[in-house]
Protein 1
Amino acid sequence: MNLLCEFQLEVVDQFFNNIAIRFLRSLPGGAQQIHQRANLKAIRELICYNQGRLADYSFVASECHKRLKEELVRIGSSTALVSQQDLDILKNRADDLSGYLDYEFRRVSHENFERLLRFFTYKTPLGKPLRACIKAVEGSTMVTLARDKFSIVEEDFSVGANTAFTRINETGTHYICNNIPSEVKRGSYRNARIYEDAVRQIYSEPGLIRRLRYRHSATAVDRNWQQCWKRVTVANLEELPPIETCYKSTLVIPMTLLNSNNWLSSEFRSHFNIGANGSRASFGFLCLDHQNTAFFNENEDLDLGYIFADISSLYLIQRLTYTTYSRAFNEAANLVQRSGMP
């Protein structure tokens, strides 16, 4: 496909991506107000839900952390004087804390993903859902903390294995790509799950008619694109990944805390290793993708994504407060490790 034809198809894609938004903007004032009220109500319900869940999450985590500290005080810090029974109790306290934080974060995230998907129903064909997950960096590896019901269990990968995360590390802001096949062919997009050689040598982007069918039909899917993705193992057998996981558009938003105008206290900045004015702390990434090209709008979709990312980051801050940045949690972990317990 020549560059002119490719450019024409991208223009058509972008036109259909924006048509729903333009339609909403062209509605009579009353209809626009109804749409705006519906969105405001959904955002209000989102905030109300997370107000209660975050309060509960923080309280229970605090209680679990308190029990862990009390156990540390009771048994002391010398492994030579600690019985196996006391070590078992201490390990259980630490496991209770980390287990609660991880499980409840996944549960809350799943509910928030469901709410997020509702905002995209106006441009999501039935049977072709938007996918969402939350990832974080552990060492030099990218791991998944929470995923929606449409996502598959993926292997962890290095930060440098995906263009979205390397670009965010360089710029400190979001990453958006609305035509992954084209960007792979140009050598400007990498993904550990994609066979890049297959995309460049075998895959041919669909023409206008087929692309329109992919966009508006629930059953029309790009099987050739599916062949370019690495196989997954199901019941000890390798097979093609589900078509909804073979995305062509992606939007990745960093969950960051910006120390703007030095409004963060020195105690908070010191605790979370945040620098002086203008510095950012990163807690994770909200990752959205869809199997259609030109799916994301960098205005409305980006604003909405940042709302969900900022809300989710509050849970991750609590999670870090009671584990990674907790003296008691680290002391308990070291004590258990020195004892030789698994």
Protein 2
Amino acid sequence: ALLLMLLFYSGFSVAVWGFAGAKSRLVDSLITLFYMSNWARALGIHAPNELGHTWSLSIEEQFYAIWPPLLLVLLRKAPTRLTIALIALALAVSAWMLRWYLGMAGATTTRLFNGLDTRADALMIGCMLGILLSSNLIPRKAEGAMSRILSIASVVSLSVLVGIAFIEHWWDPVMYYWLLFVVELLTAILIFDCFTNPPSIVRIIVSFQPLVWIGVISYGLYLWHYPIFTLMREAGYDWKQIITAGTLLTFVIAILSYFLLERPFLKLKKRLEFRPDHL
């Protein structure tokens, strides 16, 4: 899906601006293809414009290149699964502390926002939660008082996260000193609640079928929305046209991408994948 988007974007750029005019955009495509757009942005080397949103995909792929081999080593060498979970927590706190230190030392918010090293805390908190759940170190089903407490905690967490999303901005230094870490912990509460607590209000909300369907095609929505919106803005469309026509076009492309490309690939992957009994 990413390759298809990049091919279309590159071809569109050449068709509209010619090879000379599209040179910068072709470089953007190459940076994105090799999952380096986050570092291009963080270090100010050649920050992609219409493909700038792929910073998060780059961080994800870099994480996949590092964590699985490290986890295999830990599974062989660590005395217990709890030890691995604590290592994941230590790595998360280390990333947070590094972000805080670099911010105090004068690093730009762009550097803090885009670096794998300064955003790894969210990933490692997720890893810690996954290890704890898969190893039965924490209950996989909330019952009684725990269920009620978790339901309340998840509603509060969701409310706080929505408030932060409306109030805070990515360039606010407060985000990097402590607020991002709070966001990550609140998100972990939501995930834990949805995974272990069937009566959860948040679980009921995210199980709403239209939201589930959006989740199914979310990768295509993620890939296509930003270049479409950005190109429309650069072409002079107003925000109402961008929101309406841009959103409609994004959904149409994402749906086509899912049925024609992603779903067949996922079916093939499912037939070929290895299913371990445990971590």
Protein 3
Amino acid sequence: MGYNTHLVRAGLIPTRNRSSGLEIAEVIMPGPDERVTLPYIRIRTGPVGGNLVLFQPVAITHVTQLTTGKTLSIPDISLTSFPCHAVIQYDDGSVQLNRITAGTAGVYTFRDDVKPTVKAKLYIFGSEYGPPTVVYKLADASLNVLEAPCPGVFVAKEKGWPVLLFLQNTQGDQDLEMATVAFINV
């Protein structure tokens, strides 16, 4: 079975490049009955190469925030390793990529303000080196093309769960030239 049988929709992640030290991060947010797949990714690297990291959620919960702030109470989640990435899907449908920088006893500090929300969905991603994260080592000073037939180079582990595509970009010499996203229903 190929994409044609299970394809719900497809899209492109356009070119992304940033100055040195600024990460390239793209949240891929599926619909509730869609699974993210990445059949094609093209990245140009500078002299020191780099890593493409594809993060998947390790914890999901709902949160309420009454006022804008960087501190959020998440009593049902226990995190011990910081920093970690987080995606907040607000009740108005908007999505924010953020980073949890510290926390203890169910109270966590975020890098950027979390806006007021009645019931947002919070996706917490693991570390770069732990499961279920996938890391691709990119060749130095070259055009790196990752391509595979169905189900693709990468498949999200659950329907409805976002994926975070991340390039560290410490030297400012990495460009995400393009990626194809296919959303499937299996």
Protein 4
Amino acid sequence: MTSPKDLSTLVPCSATVYKFLYAQRHSILCSEHGSLVIERRFDGHKEDVKLLVADNTSDEGRLVVSYDASQTAIVWDSATGGDVMQFASFEEITAAAWVRDGKVAVGNTGGSITLVDPMTSDTIFSRTLEKETITALSSSADSKTFAIGYESGTVIVATLQPKFTVSHTLTTSTVPSPISALSWHISTRSAMLAVQARGGDLRVWNVPHTQGPDNHAAVIRTLNKAENSDVGPYWMAWSKNGCIVQYSGSETLLWDVKAKQVTWVSVPTLEYVRGLAFYRPGAALFTLGPNHTVQQFDLGSPPTMVVNVEHAEGLLPPPSMADAGPVALDGDISE
């Protein structure tokens, strides 16, 4: 029987405009929105996949970066299964985020971030907090500003170019806990940043666009369902219409944070979810459950399950293979 102890780490999952992707050991399965039929299997990795992030921020939105236990990262095209580039890192990669301009940022256990342009293989290397493991990354809509979360519980808002510059440090009076997820919601006057910690704490910060003595980042919402347990893992993402979807204490919640009086509704996911992904423009939530169960939800009002399928291992399509070796890049990334 599945138990929370079996689910301390979520299976790597992500979503593009057309596909839900999830890791199955060294393979990545690609299923179609609406039917969840598996139409491709990406088998470029030789060891288990540890990180999987699809580009759902740029105009193209087809590329995916995946990273495995051998410390090899592959950027590939979800529409064709074709390999775009590979790279390896001396430091373990622990977080990744796509940027609106088509680059991908990867953070590591040494506290460094490398911006990679998959089309040109150009890289920009930035040291942030020395020897602080980066556990979460999120790129703002301007392609310059990043929210960076660390194992220590520290969260900073910074730019990487022309040099690493911190604009805000987000601190609270709560006991620090490693950051598991960061997600931006941008408005004309300011930006809102949702911060999920592994200890269960979920807060929304107002982050001013401009710096100054009177422009401080501040907590504007604290999301806490009183009966939530401390059993992880915790996951969250911004949805549409001022809502945040969160997996917490073996329950999936949709929080409405538009008003100061925060409300929530339950999303009818399985009790034990093994992995989650979200496609914000379509308010589509995807979950992976026991026995290869995959579900898709429309997070409208109320949240509704759209598809429920089981993917039998013996009925998978043939693999699409990546055939290029790692390339040498600057900074801590190398062959």
